[in-house]
Amino acid sequence: MHIDVNVPGLLKDCTGGRASFTIEAETLEDAIRVLLETYPLLRIHLFTETGETRKHVLLYYNDDNIAWLDSLDIPLKKGDRLIVLQSVSGG
Q1: Using one digit for the tens of pLDDT, what is the confidence trace for 22-43?
Q2: Which of 20, 34, 66, 91 is 20 to 30 Å apart from 84, CA to CA?
Q3: Are the C-beta atoms of 75 and 30 separated by less than 8 Å?
């Protein structure tokens, strides 16, 4: 199954200049694994060394923050999306 992925413009340098693309996976957990295997530079921006999502990053599966999900072993279906949101601050 294909899942649409969107990343913020600040991370396009990690995805070959693309902010939107599709990847193929069977489950949400598999989609995240494929995303990081396909675009390994994303790992340091999205996850800590211990594998936790960074504080300034939100990963959404459709309308749900993946931190709210009981499991990532969710079968994907047509129209599903994985959205990366990244907080930016500064002055």
Answers
A1: 999 999 999 999 999 999 999 9
A2: 91
A3: no
Contacts (Cβ under 8 Å, ≥6 apart) of 9 = 19
Q: Over the chain, what is the mean pLDDT?
A: 94
Alpha carbon distance 20, 7 (integer Å) = 7
Q: Quote the tokens at residue 1.
A: 């199954």
Rounded to whole angstroms, the Cα distance separating 69 from 11 reads 24
Cα–Cα distance list, 53 to 17, 40, 47, 67 (Å) = 23, 15, 4, 9
Instruction: Give mean pLDDT, residues 45-51.
Output: 94
Tokens 């499991």, located at residue: 71
The pLDDT of 58-63, averaged and rounded, is: 96
8 A C-beta contact, residue 26 and residue 45: no
The Cα 74–Cα 47 span in angstroms is 20
Joined tokens for residue 57? 């990053």
